[in-house]
Write a structure and sequence with these properties.
The protein is mostly helical. It folds into two domains: 5-253, Hypothetical protein af1432; 261-444, no CATH class. The protein is built from 17 helices and two strands. The radius of gyration is 44 Å and the shape is elongated.
Length: 445
């Protein structure tokens, strides 16, 4: 396989090589014998080539890793089929045809050992197997040189090398090259960890196809038309993807400019929840205010009455001064709790002093023209100008609503923090009051 590696864009458009439109027909010697339909014939495989076929098929079935979804036995078989079609067109002799088919069968055998630089392992495997079968050293070297020519950094020189490289890259002239390329994409993800988005992959394929050329005269004649057509199809595919991506991006960016029911429901729910939470906080604060107000009134009334009758301390406290401690703790608890509860329940308007100094920025994203606490700091002219600008840009309406929700959340956060403090003071104070009262009773006894 003529690789270009991930960096050099291997056959990003790769697909299992297949027969173009003019598919060769029945076996015959490599002398351009035509079939009855007038189509070019396929070269006849020699007995040694058939043995190589049986050997490689069994070897791939036994040792090929499942991650190699593209460089499988199917790819090798397709390359061999293309070589059988190119051999008669190039007027190869039976001996040269045999060498070409042997190189085609072994050209990707190195993938069983290594991914990068597999061509060199393919050469070793082919050389060893052919030597065992008694092939002359000179012919073995020719096969090895053909396999080496499929490396991405090599340039084919002899006619046989050019034919093998063209057959290996015939996938680019196949009608379904794009779908088969997905197999290579999957292989790269599994083996190399390389992932590509659909637009990236489409561009990768197109760039590789534009930089590729067929070398042999037979290959140029056989693949020229379909290869050119596939380049145009790939250009169209890339344009469609770019157009589709732009449309998606536009829809994403313009979501706020269109009144969507889901968005309106979301804002309506958020506003409703904020109003309910605010009402709950005010109700809980009101409960604490009433309860502590009653406690303070009772304590002050009781102490006032006793002070009128018996000086600074009542009779009970005169007999046991320690009782003044729980009473004092309870009074302080009530005061602390009611104070924080009042702070939580009091009306709160977020201050924006900077807005009054710079009213001309009424259209700023931080300004919420829907909130009286802000627009009352503007002059009528600036307020009207800001509202008109907001009505012209629908996105500004949602921006103001988002800003409004944010400031409502700030107010709610402050309310609930104060309310939590009020309840905590009340709880801790009651516990301390009960403990100190028990200690005072023990002290008296």
């Amino acid at each position: 396989m003529k690789e270009t590696s991930p960096e050099a864009i291997e056959t990003a458009a790769a697909a299992t090589p297949a027969e173009p439109t003019e598919t060769p027909a029945a076996d015959s010697p490599a002398d351009r014998v035509a079939d009855p339909d007038g189509k070019p014939s396929k070269a006849k495989a020699s007995p040694l080539a058939k043995e190589a076929e049986a050997y490689i098929t069994a070897l791939f079935a036994k040792e090929m890793a499942p991650q190699l979804t593209y460089h499988s036995i199917g790819h090798t078989e397709a390359v061999v089929k293309e070589c059988r079609a190119l051999a008669p067109a190039a007027d190869l002799s039976p001996d040269d045809t045999e060498l070409l088919l042997l190189a085609a069968w072994f050209h990707d055998a190195g993938y069983l050992d290594v991914y990068e630089g597999h061509e060199f392992r393919s050469m070793e495997r082919a050389g060893a197997w052919l030597a065992e079968h008694g092939m002359a050293a000179g012919r073995v070297q020719l096969v090895k040189d053909m396999i080496k020519a499929t490396h991405r950094d090599e340039t084919p020189e002899t006619e046989l090398q050019k034919l093998l490289v063209d057959a290996d890259m015939s996938n680019l002239a196949r009608d379904d090259f794009r779908s088969r390329a997905e197999m290579l994409r999957t292989e790269w993800e599994l083996v190399l960890g390389k992932t590509y988005s659909n637009p990236e992959w489409a561009e990768l394929q197109l760039n590789f196809m534009l930089g590729h050329k067929y070398h042999s005269a037979a290959g140029k004649e056989r693949y020229r038309k379909t290869f050119k057509k596939n380049i145009e199809d790939q250009r169209d595919e890339l344009k469609k993807r770019e157009k589709k991506d732009k449309k998606k991006a536009k829809e994403k960016n313009e979501t706020f400019a269109e009144p969507k029911r889901g968005i309106e429901t979301m804002f309506r729910t958020m506003y409703g929840n904020h109003v309910k939470l605010s009402a709950m906080a005010d109700k809980k604060a009101s409960m604490m205010i009433q309860l502590n107000a009653v406690l303070i009134s009772v304590i002050i009334t009781y102490l006032g009455a006793k002070m009128g009758k018996a000086g600074a301390l009542g009779p009970m406290m005169s007999g046991n001064p320690v009782l003044g401690i729980p009473v004092s703790i309870l009074l302080v608890t009530a005061l602390g709790s009611v104070t924080t509860a009042i702070l939580s329940a009091q009306p709160d308007v977020t201050s924006f002093a900077w807005l009054k100094k710079s009213p001309e920025i009424a259209s700023n994203r931080r300004v919420n023209l829907l909130f009286f606490g802000q627009f009352t700091k503007l002059s009528l002219d600036h307020f009207q100008s800001g509202m008109r600008e907001m009505m012209r840009q629908k996105e500004a309406i949602y921006t103001n609503m988002i800003t409004d929700v944010y400031y409502l959340g700030e107010v709610l956060s402050r309310k609930y923090n104060l309310l939590r403090t009020s309840y905590t003071i009340f709880m801790v104070g009651l516990i301390l009051t009960a403990l100190s009262f028990g200690i005072a009773l023990l002290y008296k006894s």
